[in-house]
Input
Amino acid sequence: MSADGQKADQGLVDHQWQAIKTSLTSEVKPKIQGPIQWVRIHNLPDHAYFNHSQHVTAGKVACQQCHGKVENMEVVKQYAPLSMGWCINCHRQTEVKFKDNPFYNDYKKYHEEIKSGKRSKVTVEEIGGLECQKCHY
Ligand code: HEC
Ligand code: HEC
Ligand code: HEC
Output
């Protein structure tokens, strides 16, 4: 993806976080306090682990990719199946936003291979996204 595309993605995510923050705070309550209470629609079983920050901050995946166009839904519906196959498929297909992303500084070998032209991309699978213990304790 072009640098501009990445910037646009990041802008979108920042914008979405900002909208969530705005909706949960006010002048008298400037900080989001305590756990946010949701009427839960999505609910993974306890044996599976999912972390939003990993996806949104490190992975720069837009909310809509997993939740659909929430901004157009009057009542939020579950959009994706949330099955193991869904997680795995995306990890196989999705290219990690590797370039200029400090979250991946440890992957020296991949960075060198990209630099030398030996490799053009890194998928989530290649950073361990299909390992059972990453999603199951
Ligand atoms: C890679 C996929 C993915 C992305 C990207 C993602 N989510 Fe999620 N989201 C999930 C999954 C999976 C769950 C269910 C987690 C669980 O049950 O432990 C969830 C649950 C939620 C819930 C709780 C909903 C409910 O019904 O209880 C909210 C709110 C939410 N996500 C908001 C967001 C927002 C806002 C963004 C963007 C900033 C976002 N998500 C990005 C996959 C994603
Ligand atoms: C829309 C694509 C997409 C979907 C769907 C998705 N992921 Fe991911 N996932 C990513 C990307 C991109 C990354 C890389 C970001 C990172 O390094 O944390 C990632 C990283 C992860 C990691 C960290 C892997 C590592 O080696 O550091 C875990 C754990 C994970 N995902 C769990 C899940 C689970 C559980 C689900 C299903 C409930 C899921 N993901 C669904 C795109 C996705
Ligand atoms: C990227 C995340 C991810 C990885 C990697 C992953 N799983 Fe899962 N797994 C899930 C999620 C999410 C569920 C819950 C799916 C659901 O509720 O439909 C699940 C469910 C399961 C279940 C329960 C199935 C059921 O019918 O309830 C088993 C068993 C399982 N996984 C085994 C494994 C094994 C073995 C591996 C490694 C080869 C593995 N998983 C790798 C995300 C993952």
Residues 44, 48, 50, 54-55, 58-59, 61, 65-66, 82, 86-87, 90-91, 94, 96, 103, 124, 127-129, 134-135 surround heme C (ligand 2) (CB under 6 Å).
